[in-house]
Every structure is written in structure tokens, then in C-alpha cells.
Amino acid sequence: MCGIIGYIGDRKASEVLISGLSHLEYRGYDSSGIALMRGSDVQIFKAQGKLKNLIEILKDKEDVCSSAHIGIGHIRWATHGLPTTINAHPHTCDCKSLILVHNGIIENYQELKEELTALGCHFVSQTDTEVAAHLIAHEYGKTKNLLKAMQQAVKKIKGAFAFCAIHKNEPDRIVVAKRNAPLVIGVGQDENFIASDIPAIIEYTKKAIYLSDGQVGVVKKNSIEIYDENDLITQNKIENLPFEAIAISKMGYKHFMLKEIHEQSDVVRNVLSGKLISHDDKIKLEEFKLTPEKIKKIQRVQIVACGTSLHAGMVGKYIIERYAGIPTDVEPSSEYIYRETIADENTLVIGISQSGETADTITAIKQVKEKNSHIIIITNRADSTMARLADSLLPVSAGIEVSVAATKSYMAQLISLYMLAIYLMEQKGIEKYHDEIVNLKQELIELPNKIEALLENTNDIKLLAKKYSSYKDFIFIARGINFPSALEGALKLKEISYINATGYGAGELKHGPIAMLDENMPVLAILNQGVVYDKVLSNCEEARARQAKLIGVADYVAPKDKDLFDDLILIPHVSDILSPALNIIVLQLLAYYIAEYLGKDVDQPRNLAKSVTVE
Ligand code: F6R
What we know:
The chain has 615 residues and is of the alpha/beta class.
């Protein structure tokens, strides 16, 4: 959450900062601001709302914009205080000498604020960041050295932060610090960059230094110094960045979300590549570091994730339990971290995260690491904090996902979980499902073509979206392996269209939710030929009897049952076990077209951010 950018070099700092912030907008977009430094003169510009409002303000500030070559910037996702201009970063101290941008949450900010108030500091915003600005400035008063001031201040701060600070008395440097929030220093020739994520700087440099938790850095035009938690100088490796700037473009689609939905066939091909060669070969998973002997000793699997990644994990539970025969729990990371969890060296813990930066999941993984469990991280960001905590890293390589609503990364997570479940089964030598697995492998190989066939004809879904866009509530139902699809379909709809949508196991309908059904409550049912098909059909009858509008998403409906549905979307047939990978595309498209029809900001829905780096 929140994006940070910093620049020092010969370019116009304002251009680098605005360009960087535009690539960080997915991290938050309720306000933004930059500070430009020319010698000891610092000018701060802030705006409420989207980045375009800040760009508008800068239009008649050409003088400072063209002559400043050092600056820091921020795009905000509000945690403390309303999304107003006053609360927007950068923040300063009373004498306006110290200027700070921050990502994270300072947990002891109230205590610090009281102490600083007693020392005479005045606060103008409601933010925790302003407290940090005063604290660093206070330490500067004692040390007259920005590095030392930062080092002293971070020792007093509890919580998570990535800081980027400048001081009027030290116009040749930016001082940075990090704990439990991402921060990377882009290394250039006679210039350096700072960002909370790579897309912000990738057009300028392909080399970077990742700060570790507890480190503080001094970034100058021609040098970078890093200090460890004990304030001793240390050396961090310069790494090559894994992205191409070209990846961050809409490529002619109206929104990133639509582009990313359409990329899913290639995403499946990418995930399968090198792992699944043919239906009669074993899965190759070189990234998985446990030996077959250790795999045989695994007593339980625990999956921790949030939101969409959690839904992928729920599908994972079905397939790991079925094929690998290992009891599997799936839990939101935010719940996992606040109870006594039972895990040991025979527990396999799977953390799933698109961004690899989700604070709750990182905390869960750190907790369980102490119990000697083997940790697999399934992430789209091999360069993320979570990836660095992995014992086995399964990068899903879906390509950067810009739209806040996760689509292709979900697909990549699903396919990775199929690979993992089959791999565990094969390493354990389980033969029971041999024929079924041969068939599933063939279906996985054919899946990209089926996705493409589905995406070629989306007219029915567009018409459906238009027809149902005026409804205020929706219910999604399914059973078995598609229960998570119902949850994910409902999540997609609510997050981008703001329509109240809830997913239920279809069998649960009659235990309460059915009370809500009438002609104003559309029910979307997911049906696939398989063990629960008839059961879901009966649940559809129950909904129909309450006059709910009924939408079916199915691979087959017998002619005698067709009249049950007001609308029916038929998709290519795949076996029940693989059907979540096709069904979800219909639900993604439905959510997309409803939101688009309603004129919503599809790629940047209100109140959300792509990377949730606060607990
Ligand atoms: C919804 C969505 C979120 C994320 C959740 C976890 O479209 O994207 O629900 O899935 O915030 O994020 P990651 O996967 O980055 O850990």
C-alpha cells in the first residue's frame, strides 16, 4: 500500500517522480505529492484524488519542475486520516527542513506523538507519517546528520515502514530506511532511484539493490551506502531486475483488467512450460526442494493467503487432498497469525500471494518459519519479500498484473497448485488416480485452447452484464471444487462494480441465505458435470421456487432443465476437477462488463490497492 519514489541525478526530478508514481498508482490512489529540492530550497506539491490532479497542479510550476534534480514522491492509500491534501505525503517537521514520504504503519505513533508534542512539536495532519517526520527532525536536532537521525529514529519506531527522507541542510542525498515494507534502490550511471516497486524505475535502470529489514541507506548521485541494524556499513548485492518496460501497457485493450483476462491462455502455457511435457510424463518441479523421502513424511499441508489468493488456495485444498492424500487446511493469513497454530517439520506450508508483499501472509510465513516447516511460496513476484522467505519458490510468471482486481495471477496460482498436487502424488508413488491424472494432464495441455475459444465469444456475457447491471445484490452458488469459484466470482463483482455480492456453497442456501431470495436477487449458479451436478441443480430449483432470477454457468444443461434458467452461459467442457480454471473466466468477464457498463474505474476501484503491505 502506498507508493514511494525518489530520484537523484541530472534528469528533471519531477518527470521521474511523476512517471514513477504513475506506475505505482495501483498501490493506492487517494492522494499524491512530491517534494523537489534545489540546493536548500524545497518545494512541496500535493493533491487529493488521482495522480492526474497532481499533474494538473504542476503544469504552471515549470520553473521548479525543470530545475530540480532531486526529489521524493508518494502516492497514498489512506491508513491514518482521511484522504485529504493535508494528509497527503510528503510530510515535514515544524521548521519544514526535514521532508519525508512513508509506506507502512507506525504502531506506536500515538505515544511518539505525545512525547513530541510535549517537546513542542505541532502537528497539522492526522497521519502517523507526520509523527515520523517530527521524530527524525528531532533526532536531527541532536546529531545534525540525516543518516544518524534516521538511524536513531527507526530504533524508536514500532511497526512497518519504508522511508525516504531529504533535509534542506544536506541537499546531495536521500536517506532511506526499511522494515517490513518493500523498498528498492535503482542503480544508474550518475543517478540513482528509489521505489517501493520495480515498475516505477524499470524504464531507467535494470539494476537494483534490495534493502533488507532494518537497513538504512544514503543515496547520492554517484554512490549508495547501506548500513545494517547495528549502524555498521554493509554491502548489498546489485541484482538484475526481471521486468521489461513494455509489459506495462494496455496493448489496445480499454482496461488492464480486460487485457489481463485475455492473457490467461498464455499464462497457463507459461506455468505448464517445462513442468508438464506430455500426459504420460511425470510433473517436473525443480523449484520444489523437498526430497521424495521428506515428501512422504508430510503429515499436513497448511495454505495461508488472502483474498483472491485464498480462493486459489481453497481449490488447492481439494486437489492436494484428493491426489496427494494429505490433510490440507486453508486459512486467511490474517486469522492464522492470531491463534495457536500447530505446525512442525512434517508440515508443508504454502503461502500464496500475487504481490508477495501482503503483510498478513508475510507475518504468517515468518511465524511458521520458526517451527521448521517447509515453506513453499507461490507468487507472481519472484523478487518479493515473500519469495525471499521461501524454502521452495514457485514463481508463477504471469507477467506483471496492473489491474487491482487479480485475474491472470489467480489463473497462474490455480495451475501451479495443480502442478504441485500432481507432483506430490507422483513423488509419494500414489497410483490410485493414475488414469484420471493422465486425463487431467492432457486437459491441462489443452486448457489454453479452451480458454481462447471461450474468450473468442464473449457477446453473451456482455449482454448478460448489461441486463443485470442495475441489480443491487447478487448471490453466487456452487459446490465442491467450484465453491471457491463462487466466492471468487462474488469478490470480483463487488470489488470493481460495488454491487453487493456473496458466494455460498449451494447446499448452504437453505440454511439462511434463502431468506433473501426474491425477484430482486439474481442467483448465479456454477454447474459442471460431476459429482455435485444434480445437487446444484436441486439448489437452483430451490432458488427458482423463490422467484430469484437464475443465471447458470455450465458446461452442459439437459434440454429438460434449460427452462429453469433465465440466462445460461455455456462454456467448453472440461472435467469437474479442472473446471474452476474455465468457470472463473466467465465470472471475471461478467464482473468486468458490469463494472464497465456502470462506468466504474475498473482498474483502480475505490478504497483498494494492489499490494496490501499493512496488516
Ligand atoms: C482481489 C485481490 C485481492 C488480493 C489480496 C491478496 O482481486 O486482488 O483480494 O488477492 O489482497 O493479495 P496478494 O495475492 O498479493 O497476497
